[in-house]
Amino acid sequence: MGIDDVVGKGKDLYEENKDKIAEAVKSEQAEDISDKVLDGVADFAKKIAPGAADKIDEIRDNADKSIGNE
Asked: How far apart are the C-alpha atoms of 43 and 59, rounded to whole Å?
């Protein structure tokens, strides 16, 4: 099986389950997990670039709007 076959199967699997995937991304569980991950990444980024804290928070908030239900 070549890489094209694997990619094709992945695309087929996505097409068959895209509604379930969209629902899972907007779930409460996804919200909880994404908040923890985004908070951790933002905190780490602020330690590396403390002068960019406001921009980091803005990016974190924008990313959070795309995941979960809040």
From this structure: 12
In a domain, 70, yes or no: no
Classify residue 57: in a domain, yes or no. yes
Q: Please count the structural domains in the chain.
A: 1
The domain containing residue 18 runs over which residues?
Answer: 3-65
Give me 32's structure tokens: 């909880």
pTM of the model: 0.60
Residue 2 CA: distances (Å) to CA of 8, 11, 54 = 10, 14, 46
Alpha carbon distance 39, 33 (integer Å): 10
One pLDDT digit (tens) per residue for the chain, 70 residues: 688 888 888 888 888 888 887 777 777 887 888 899 999 999 999 999 999 999 999 999 998 887 766 6
